[in-house]
Amino acid sequence: MLTSPANDGQGATPFLVDLTGFNGPLDLLMSLIRDEQLDIYDIPVARICDQFLAKMHELQLNEAAEYLEMAARLIRIKAQMLLPRKEGSDDWEDPRAELVRRLLEYQQMREVVDVLEHLGDDRRSRFARTYMGQPAAPPPAPLALSLGDLLIAVDRVLRAARRPTIHEVIPRALDVDGAMQTVRAILQLRARMRFRELIRDGAEPWEVLSALLGLLELGKRNEVHLTQPRPFADVEIRRESAGEAA
């Protein structure tokens, strides 16, 4: 495909050359050398220059800058090769040296490209294409918080939190011994009694707990016998015979 320069209002666009068979003037030159089976270190410049110009005309590359530059280089080398040189002179430098160097570099690159293309084809023939799903979303970035920001956040939480309720606990000593003496005194007068008779009206919780613990202690010592006819019924207290004897 050849495109000629065009004016788009901002200046002429570069001349583009895209050939299916050749990727530039070096590729065309290498093709001519291979077709003629020439020694790359001893290129007959006059012959290869004529073939290069003929190929340019055949492919209509007369306006391609890169091909024109290569054609001019070949003509210059051709002219330098025709100049007479002194016999046995060591100062003479082969004008084809630079061209040979570029051709060797291009040949190496082409070999590398061919190897990579072969490996690519081999891989495609070995491994089938698989479905590539959408990549997972990256995890959220870790929270960046300085010590000052952390202290401010803690202070804000403490201000918003409810003030804790503080209960004042007043210790009171239980009078278990006094409750036991009271039970013994009543049972000296009669054989049985009820638990409610030990509790006075308006009694404090510690007094009720003292009476209960006193009864349990007397029952443990086998001085009284405690019975409850049904759940939540009043406890009946009866004097044991051994306790009565005591």
UniProtKB/TrEMBL annotation:
InterPro entries: ScpA, ScpA-like_C. Pfam families: SMC_ScpA (PF02616). This is Segregation and condensation protein A.
